[in-house]
Amino acid sequence: MTTSGGTPSRQRRRGPALEAALLDAAWAELAEAGYAKLTMESVASRAGTGIAVLYRRWANKDQLVLAALEHHRNTHPVDVPDTGTLRGDLLAALTGMGEARAAFFAVTAAAAFSGLLAGTGLTPAQARDRILGDQRVSRIQAVYQRAHDRGEIDLERIPPAVLAMPFDLVRHDLLMDLEPVRPARIRSIVDELFLPLVLRVTSR
Question: What does each C-alpha distance from 52 to 34, 43, 59, 60 come to in angstroms?
Answer without folding.
Answer: 22, 11, 10, 11
